[in-house]
Specification:
Number of strands: 9
Low-confidence stretches: 22-43, 54-80
Shape: globular
CATH architecture of one domain: 3-Layer(aba) Sandwich
CATH superfamily of one domain: von Willebrand factor, type A domain
Helix content: 25-40%
Strand content: 15-25%
Largest sheet: 6 strands, mixed
Strand order of the largest sheet: 6-5-4-7-8-9
Structural class: alpha/beta
Radius of gyration: 39 Å
Length: 277
Amino acid sequence: MKSVLLILIPVFLLSYFLAGGIDSPFPKKVAVPSGEPRALAEAAPSGDGKQLQINDLRFRPPSPQPSPPLPPTASQQPSTCPPGQKVAVDMLLDTSGSMARGSRINILSNVVNNFVSLYLQNDDIIGIQEFSDFPADVVPINTKSNNSSYFPLTLITHNFTHMNDGMLFAQNKILTARSTYPGYNWVLIFLSDGVPETASSLPDPTQVPTGTASVIKASGVRIISIGLELYSLGEPAASYARNLMTSVASSPSDYHDATTTNLGDIYRDIAQVLPCT
């Protein structure tokens, strides 16, 4: 009799448990073949306690958070410059014989044309002088940037590189124009591909423009200098030319080492800082 009871009692208990008569204190969780690795199911007794029901528990991943915005590039930085500030830009451009190499003079002409048409406002003033054997006026400084009679510009090369003659010429032009146009921010863009040179000397110390440039800067004009393909001079001339162009500029960051490939980008970058001059 005892052996029969030992067999029947476990069978009875197992059947009673499966029918829901004994509540387990913990829910049984089994994987649900739903194709979602995070979907689980909870085995829980039904309302009448006689059968199991499967409750689908879905653990959703957290909603994606927006990525933090990237820091603005230099061209996207909010401007701290006075709004509507009028700008007067004078350019002193090297048109010596070396500027005829490759396509330097043609690229410079195109870059200057784009600079005036794309970046200057209608009330801005533009002036252009060139220097080689002698300085010459190309566009008078009293020219508004929307004056189409001088543009598109075509520059022509000559022989030597009389830098200081050009700088003195530009100084006189700027001095006269500043009294006529008060309230403008004044900038001189000085570009050369060489060193001070005359027929008798290379380099020629009498044509070093740093002294004249210092007088211009002291008058409140910002000078931005551009050395075009100075590497082609070879050493030590290339280093000499870079140092010279850097000393002419208002600050080391106002000197730009350029090639014909990035010259347009440099002029665009210059345009962005003009109102802050």
